[in-house]
Amino acid sequence: QVLTPSPDRRLVDCPCYRQCGGCAFRHIRYQAELRLKEAAVRDAFQRVGGFPLAPLPIVGALEDSRCRNKAQYPLGVGKDGKIIAGFYARNSHRIIPAGDCLLHPVAFGEILCCIVDFLNQNLASVYNEGTGKGLFRHVYLRQASSTGEILVCLVTTKARPPKIGELAELLREKFPQIVGVCVN
Known about the structure:
Blueprint: H1 30-48, E1 70-77, E2 83-88, E3 95-97, H2 106-121, E4 136-143, E5 150-156, H3 164-174, E6 178-183
Parallel strand pairs: 5-6
Antiparallel strand pairs: 1-2, 1-4, 2-3, 4-5
């Protein structure tokens, strides 16, 4: 319950904020977020590590939206039996489906949707932490900020999943900014 809002408080602009574990600071101004992160680093160095060093000030992004250049999305199965991708809910391994996350480039959501659609259409299996079975575990995306080029990495339990070549071709055809698709 907020009795008196901080001057650093702002309206949350993400509809998934309360559920999703993708970000923790959408309710405060970006400068306040940077101060909190700098204090956490200082605490880790000085109190926890015993180093008398003061960390250098954090250099923040120019904008607090669309500023992250990488994301890792766990894959799972939704209530309807279809494959979903998103972020773990806070303090859990329950996946909250990701749409267009305000922290990531718009293309990440589009690429993720394409991958999930392909996996569902091809009846792919996703890894189940309880049974240890399943093939696809995560989708990892990274974008070069200077060129806009994107790398797609599929984290799997097999070195060469079935139809991976088809998926790579589809992604490269649909998204020309993708310069590589790899399997880990």
